[in-house]
Specification:
The complex is a heterodimer.
Chain A: E1 5-14, E2 17-27, E3 32-36, H1 43-51, E4 56-65, E5 68-69, H2 75-81, E6 83-86, E7 93-97, H3 98-112, H4 120-133, E8 144-145, H5 151-165, E9 169-173, H6 181-193, E10 200-205, E11 218-223, E12 226-231, H7 234-242, H8 245-250
Parallel strand pairs in A: 3-10, 3-11, 6-9, 9-10
Antiparallel strand pairs in A: 1-2, 1-4, 4-5, 7-8, 11-12
Chain B: E1 6-7, E2 17-18, E3 26-32, E4 41-43, E5 52-59, E6 67-75, E7 80-89, E8 96-105, E9 110-118, E10 124-133, E11 138-147, E12 150-159, E13 165-174, E14 179-188, E15 194-203, E16 208-217, E17 225-234, E18 240-249, E19 255-264, H1 267-275, H2 280-296, H3 302-316, H4 326-330
Parallel strand pairs in B: 3-5, 4-6, 5-7, 6-8, 7-9, 8-10, 9-11, 10-12, 11-13, 12-14, 13-15, 14-16, 15-17, 16-18, 17-19
Antiparallel strand pairs in B: 1-2
Classes of the chains: A alpha/beta, B mainly beta.
């Protein structure tokens, strides 16, 4: 099957400092990948570079997303192409309601596909359906984007947005950070419900905990901007009990 | 009914003007080059204006000289009125207009005034609002400056009777070489009055805006509550917003505050929206609408408020500058 994403020898700088030092990664449809690694290893930089955040400079390497040059695309074009980034720290946008935000996003996606915008009733139906996936109250939709949301609500909102946009590849950056057990379960269940043979997920995480709920096919350990180990899901458990030191020493 | 909203000039060369804000329960009157059959209001004791009065002031090429005129809004004890003042330019001459709006509110009188300014790029229009308020009177003013060459609004409110309340708010949009200046002076001359000011500006291009707001609290105006805020959003690097908040307080038992900010579009918010597939320009538009929201929400009349939201959107989309004479385009 065709690769969803092919990252080859990716190097990236921020403020002149090299953070990614040659990443290679291939994700196929239907797969769940986990990227683990200690603080400062470049996990969040990788997700930011893939989503197209400004101020990150790619100095070497290529990223192909469904056959297209991802790095040449704007953040919105990446979204239209089917890439989704679940933020570690979702942004609050006071004054823009959730409903307005998501409706605009969904309709921009539809416009790109040559589809007519959803009517208010159609949108409402879709929204209610997707909100149920993350057990969110429809009342939230009239509130400002993430404004006054708890940590758990923000992460649930990320998964709700993912459900609405139906991406081919979702990169979930530390989606488990700041979640209590219940919220973790809801978020993970949501992600699992969205899993299909034609889409894929990259879960970026510090801890094994989330991987009890979202079971990865392949686990990578990122350290100092490079993937130093790739293995099956048992690697996550090994990291949990032994830490990263044994891997780092092997480097 | 429909004809009420159209101004047909005597000069056949001149295009007619059609107001596109036909609001329900509104009496509409035209003031052409400073002249009109009905200018201002004079309401007796307890008289309540049944409909909103919309005064559409237009400048035409029939009078190109500088113009100054004044209108009076006198509301006696317990009288109530809602007024919408619009100003437009019908042709591209370099108009200069000086306008004075005098407001006198008797005891317990209530006046809601919304001002909508939409003139062309070379038009200069200065308006001076002078307001006198007696005991328990309420004055709500929302000034929405959508477009114009050099727009200046001076607002002076005198709270002369206990329990008076005034809320003056404004939203100004400027781009290109446009200039908008706002000066507000609120005089708390007596105790137990309440005033609030919220002015917001969205600036693009090389526009310049200034805001100077003063709250004056006299020595015996105890229990005064007065608030003032001015926030500016710069959408370009070359726009400049000047802001000067002033408090002059001689009483010692008051609640007063002021705040002023000048900022640019939030990069993190923009990236978040774009990562969800909202194109950059659309994301900027959402941010600007969100910024302006708090001011427009203070307009009490729902259909007018919605109309202003949609005018704001077309203004921010640059639709006003597409036609030579913007005023015909929008309302």
């Amino acid at each position: 099957m065709e690769n969803l994403i092919e990252i080859k020898n990716l190097h990236a700088n921020i403020n002149g400092k090299e953070i990614l030092k040659g990443i290679d990664l291939v994700v196929k449809p239907g797969e769940v990948h986990a990227i683990m690694g200690p603080n400062g290893s470049g996990k969040s930089t990788l997700s930011a570079v893939l989503a197209g955040k400004e101020h990150y400079e790619v100095t070497e390497g290529t990223v192909k997303f469904m056959g297209h040059d991802l790095l040449a695309m704007s953040p919105e074009e990446r979204s239209w192409a089917g890439l989704f980034l679940g933020f570690q720290y979702p942004i609050e946008i006071p004054g823009v309601t959730n409903v307005n935000f998501m409706k605009t996003a969904v309709n921009e996606h539809r416009k790109q596909k040559g589809l007519a915008p959803l009517t208010a009733a159609e949108y409402l139906k879709l929204m209610r359906e997707k909100l149920a996936i993350v057990e969110m109250d429809p009342a939230f939709s009239s509130r400002g984007v993430n404004v006054g949301f708890s940590g758990g609500e923000k992460k649930r909102n990320e998964i709700f947005q993912m459900a609405m946009l139906d991406p081919k590849l979702a990169i979930l950056d530390e989606t488990d950070s700041g979640l209590d057990v219940d919220a973790l379960r809801i978020v993970a269940t949501g992600v699992n419900k969205l899993k299909r043979p034609d889409n894929a997920t990259i879960v970026i995480t510090h801890y094994q905990r989330l991987l009890d709920y979202i079971v990865p096919d392949i686990v990578h350990v990122l350290y100092k901007g490079k993937i130093i180990k790739t293995s099956g899901k048992e690697l996550a458990l090994e990291v949990e009990t032994r830490g990263y030191d044994w891997l780092i020493k092997g480097e | 009914m429909e004809n009420n909203y159209i101004y047909i000039p005597n000069d056949p060369q001149q295009e007619e003007f059609r107001c596109r804000v036909p609001l329900k329960d509104t009496e509409q009157v035209f003031v052409v080059d400073g002249k009109g059959e009905k200018m201002g209001l004079n309401l007796g004791k307890g008289e309540i204006l049944p409909q909103m009065l919309q005064v559409i002031a237009v400048r035409s090429r029939q009078a190109q000289e500088d113009l100054s005129y004044s209108t009076d809004y006198r509301l006696a004890e317990r009288a109530q009125a809602k007024v919408l003042l619009c100003s437009h330019t019908l042709s591209m001459e370099d108009f200069t207009t000086h306008e004075c709006v005098n407001v006198e509110l008797g005891k317990g009188a209530i006046l809601d005034m919304v001002v909508m300014q939409n003139e062309h790029n070379k038009s200069k229009h200065s308006t001076s609002f002078k307001v006198q308020m007696e005991e328990g009177a309420v004055f709500n003013l929302n000034v929405v400056t959508l477009h114009g060459g050099e727009i200046s609004n001076e607002i002076e409110v005198n709270l002369n009777g206990k329990g008076g309340e005034c809320n003056v708010n404004g939203l100004y949009l400027a781009d290109g070489q446009q200039k908008v200046s706002t000066r507000v002076n609120i005089f708390h001359n007596v105790p137990e009055c309440h005033s609030s000011q919220l002015f917001k500006g969205i600036l693009d291009g090389e526009s310049r805006t200034s805001f100077s707001g003063k709250i004056y609290v006299a020595k015996d105006a105890q229990k005064t509550e007065a608030y003032q805020a001015n926030n500016n959003l710069l959408a370009s690097r070359t726009a400049k917003a000047y802001t000067q908040p002033h408090l002059e307080i001689y009483a010692d038992d008051v609640k007063c505050s002021h705040g002023a900010t000048v900022g640019s579009l939030n990069e993190d918010e923009l990236f978040y929206m774009r990562s969800r597939g909202i194109a950059k320009d659309e994301a900027k538009l959402l941010q600007q609408q969100a910024f302006a929201y708090a001011v427009l929400e203070k307009v009490a009349n729902e259909s007018l408020r919605e109309r202003l939201h949609s005018l704001l959107e077309s203004r921010l989309r640059g639709e006003f500058s597409e036609c030579a004479n913007c005023s015909k385009h929008c309302c």
